[in-house]
Amino acid sequence: MRLENKTAVITGAGSGFGEGMALRFAEEGAKVVVSDINGDAAKRVADDIIAKGGQAIADVTDVTDAAQVQAMTDNSLKNYGSLDILVNNAGMPQRNAPMLETDEATFQKIYDVNVKSIFFTTKSVVPVMQEQKGGNILNIASTAALSPRPGLVWYNSSKGAVVTMTKAMAVELAPQQIRVNALCPVIAMTGMTVEFMGGEDTPEIREKFQSTIPLGRMNTPRDLANAALYLTSDEASFITGVAMEVDGGRCI
Question: 185 is in which domain, residue-wise?
């Protein structure tokens, strides 16, 4: 098993990409802290993992609240005694619309969830990894950071910040054997997708998005989970500071 005896905290793990990673990590032996702002969703995923013979606990955390993020870290240590992998997956979408139509509250929420949350988790988790003399942080960015679509300016820029933070963190933390990488997924059918589509899901709109992906289909949670598994496993022990595209060729 590729993550045996590892403890993984995954934010936004109650659905979508986060759920996919939680299930995949558990399959490979990880003890998973299924963290989500939605407690019922977190419990459902944790119960699913346990029913399949894995180890998991549900954790309710609003990643925009520093005290709750610290409680998430403490919860991991209390239950499993370590924190080896952190996946910053919790994210806030933006409805596709001209940039001038976004109000300040929406802009602030996008940056609080997508950017400031990583500041909070880093402040909370990195000292633990430093004491353990190693660890692994995976930030979920987006192809929007590398090849932006119009109508998503503030979301694009928030994910660009995630990529830059990833590279800066990787350089600073490398001497302490803490690896930091990012994944840049293309659109998938998750709870956020309709927002990206402008609030409407039709076969025509789906085709419009899929037509920009050379492999001819959308991403899936399993696609992203397999890439996440590689980067957080010892197989990638010499890889840090990358922003890997999981996009079917979208950014070519």
Answer: 7-246
